[in-house]
Amino acid sequence: MTARRTNAPGLFERLLPTLVIVAFIIGWELFVRWRGIAPIFLPPPSQIAKYFMRMVMDGSLGLNLGATLLRIFVGFAVAAVAGVALGVLMGMSRIVARVADPWIAALYPLPKIALIPLLVIWLGTGEAYKILISAITAFFPIVISSYAGIRQADRGLMKAAEDLGANRRQIQMKVVIPSAIPSIFAGLHLGMGVTIILVVAAEMIGGAGHLGMGNLLITAGQVMETEKVFASLVVLAVVGAVVIKSQQWIDRKVAPWMTSRDEH
After folding, report:
1. pLDDT for the residue numbered 3
2. d(CA 229, CA 200)
3. What's the pLDDT at 222?
């Protein structure tokens, strides 16, 4: 009990991230006003907040953010199902691994943003193109991490389960896959991060009239609305942080033994 109290974060430690953010915002505001920097180059946070509220009130933020999130989550869901399934199959079957490995080795290092012109030619700039680039981007980190997690399963535990009379399927379901969950989750985290980046980049070249945070950013930049650019970037940063924290919460609920292991 004593050790648990000692390791528990105090009030100041819990508040420290918030205090640092508040101090940064105040320092930014004071610096811009002290130096007299024009808003077109670096607007103060107060001005960014005004533009943010304006975007909320006119509905442009909700529409564009909703479109971006839909593309991110639909593409990520497809990549998560396909990537985990293929990674697990590769880890459990030498034949599947031999067939899939050369393709993954060749395609994974390929910059996914380089696929955008080709996908635009094939699919146009509609929803299919944006969702596909989302899925392709997330797929490779997920399948590679899932495969690595299966291959790195503890051989000692597998041997112990075999000695206790477990068959091959039971060993795979009760030992191998649970031990691979940390690697699978790591791949899902990485896949989500790069998906957000590529979806916004894809939206930037989607053309006028298309919804999405990427289009909102590029349109605001073209007319020199720096405040709107910063407001959009802040929204994307907050959304990214919320998504990551939500993934971590899901990790703790699905695999609580990961958290207890990290605490030790």
Report:
1. 45
2. 13
3. 84
Domain that holds residue 160: 64-263
The tokens of 251 are what? 């990790």
**Predicted local confidence at residue 112, as pLDDT:** 84
Which residues have a Cβ under 8 Å from the Cβ of 200 and sit 6 or more positions away? 68, 212, 213, 214, 217, 236
| Closest of 130, 152, 261 to residue 197, by C-alpha | 130
Distance (Å, rounded) from C-alpha 80 to C-alpha 72? 12
Nearest-5° Cα angle at 249, 245 to 253: 170
What residues in the chain have per-residue pLDDT under 50? Answer: 1-5, 263-264
How many structural domains compose the chain? 1
The whole-model pTM stands at 0.82
Q: Determine whether 187 is exposed, middle or buried from the number of CB atoms within 10 Å of its CB (0-12, 13-18, 19+).
A: buried
Is 37 domain-assigned?
no
Say how far apart CA 136 and CA 242 lie, in whole Å. Answer: 23
Q: Is the torsion defined by CA of 31, 33, 34, 39 positive or negative?
A: positive
- CATH code at 111? 1.10.3720.10
Has residue 244 been placed in a domain? yes
Cα-based distances in Å from 174 to 157, 250, 251: 10, 20, 18
Q: Could you give the CA distance from residue 157 to residue 154 in angstroms, rounded to a whole number?
A: 5
CA distances from 98 to 91, 92, 221 (A): 10, 11, 47
pLDDT for the residue 4: 47
Position 80, amino acid: A
Say if 173 falls within a structural domain: yes
In a domain? residue 33: no
How far apart CA 92 and CA 206 sit, in angstroms, is 41
